[in-house]
Write a structure and sequence with these properties.
Helix content is about 55%, strand content about 15%. The protein has about 425 residues and is of the alpha/beta class.
């Protein structure tokens, strides 16, 4: 049996292809059942996200073309419509690929951690469907451990590489522990939502979300912790905000210098961090002239992001080295797993022959034969039957010049060469 991985991702396929090949979460149990039934696959896991669809199987490698055909059939797609975009990995390459994916090295944003949670969920779904066996269990658990090691031993996820992450990183540099601080988020779009996620993961004490439409702000507060207000209410809460992050589509500034001055007076000039990631700007440029205000724009964040990407690329090189080492370790474990199964099969085969010879010897004793004769029968019969097949294979190997099998037999049974 081989480990096989096929699929496509943001590097190999455009979004319209990725959409057509994706598996909806509610369809995964059926897909796994159908896959195992139609192809007699012993183990299978399907990873399906917005950026990738990948199938990992324990199967006969010669069935890989049939797996590709199954993928087309399941999605009712024309033959080979996905094929130009698919990658195919076997054994060591499949292991290497999964470890890179789990570690965030194959992601659209280098080092992003979300993919690990998504793959863990796919693994749990496969387990719930009964499609995880010894080989995939060892593979995925090893990949999860490698991802943890990469996070621990490298800085792959430490440096900001998105506007939202950079904004929160700046706030942490200014204030350190955020648990006693309040953040005001202006807007309710994707960037603000990401900033909200990063703030909450950083332990922010309180979040206030201001938006032109209150319902959209409330949508975020229903999903995350926080208070929702309208843009008109900002002057009432601005003095509470240690951190302000703004990202709206407004063509005119949302916050003027005068409003910020009033907030500073109410705060008794305790410092404020204001991060304007809107284009055009949401915060008047003159605010930078105020004492006790740290004002940053999207241009400032771009420089931070570039620095972060360079740092992540350096960390990625170290992560690749970790993965290469762990792939070798995994393949050794996998061979040990296969050896364990072979040893168990060999012991089972020998035990079957033993029981058959013992049953016949006991029958001889029951008929009155002497114990000595019964023991001789047992020893002779068991030895002959145990060695019959290996002896036949060794003769055939010798006749065909396959000396590797002969040499392996001498090594396995530690046979000394007494011909000299």
């Amino acid at each position: 049996m081989s480990l096989v991985a096929i699929g496509l991702n943001h590097l190999t396929a455009p979004v319209d292809v990725r959409e057509r090949i994706a598996f909806a979460p509610e369809r995964l149990p059926d897909a796994l059942h159908t896959l195992r039934r139609d192809l007699s696959v012993s183990e299978a896991t399907i990873v399906s996200t917005c950026n990738r669809t990948e199938i990992y199987c324990g199967m006969d490698a010669t069935l890989t073309p049939a797996l590709v055909n199954w993928l087309h059939d399941y999605h009712r797609a024309p033959d080979d419509s996905f094929s130009p975009f698919l990658f195919e990995h076997h054994d060591q390459q499949a292991v290497h690929h999964l470890m890179r994916v789990c570690s965030g090295l194959d992601s659209m944003v280098l080092g992003e951690p979300q993919i690990l949670g998504q793959i863990k969920q796919a693994y749990r779904d496969a387990g719930d469907s009964g499609s995880i066996g010894k080989h995939l269990s060892l593979l995925f658990q090893s990949a999860f451990n490698v991802a943890k090691q990469v996070r621990t031993d490298t800085a792959i996820g430490a440096s900001p590489v998105s506007v939202a992450f950079a904004a929160v990183s700046l706030a942490k540099q200014i204030f350190g522990d955020l648990s006693d601080h309040t953040a005001l988020l202006i807007g309710a779009g994707e960037t603000i939502e990401l900033a909200l996620q990063h703030l909450q993961s950083s332990g922010i004490g309180r979040v206030i979300i201001a938006n032109r439409t209150l319902e959209r702000a409330q949508r975020l507060t229903n999903q995350y912790q926080g208070d929702a207000i309208t843009l008109a209410e900002i002057p009432n809460v601005l003095a509470l905000a240690d951190i302000t992050i703004s990202s709206t589509g407004s063509t005119l500034p949302i916050l003027g210098k005068g409003a910020v001055e009033q907030a500073l007076k109410a705060r008794k000039h305790r410092p404020m961090a204001m991060i304007d990631i809107a284009v055009p700007r949401d915060i008047e440029a003159q605010v930078v002239d105020l004492s006790d205000v740290f004002l940053y724009t999207v241009d400032d964040l771009t420089e931070i992001i570039d620095q972060g990407m360079r740092a992540r690329q350096e960390a990625a090189a170290k992560a690749e080295s970790i993965i290469d080492h762990q792939v070798v370790n995994f393949m050794q474990k996998l061979r040990g797993l296969d050896a364990g199964r072979t040893i168990a099969d060999l012991r089972g085969y020998a035990t079957g022959l033993q029981q058959e010879a013992l049953k016949n010897a006991q029958a001889m004793l029951a008929k009155g034969e002497s114990p000595e004769k019964a023991l001789q029968y047992f020893a002779h019969t068991f030895t002959n039957k145990l060695l019959h097949k290996p002896s036949t294979q060794l003769r055939e190997a010798s006749e065909t010049g396959d000396h590797a099998i002969v040499d392996a037999a001498r090594q396995l049974f530690d046979l000394k060469d007494n011909s000299q």
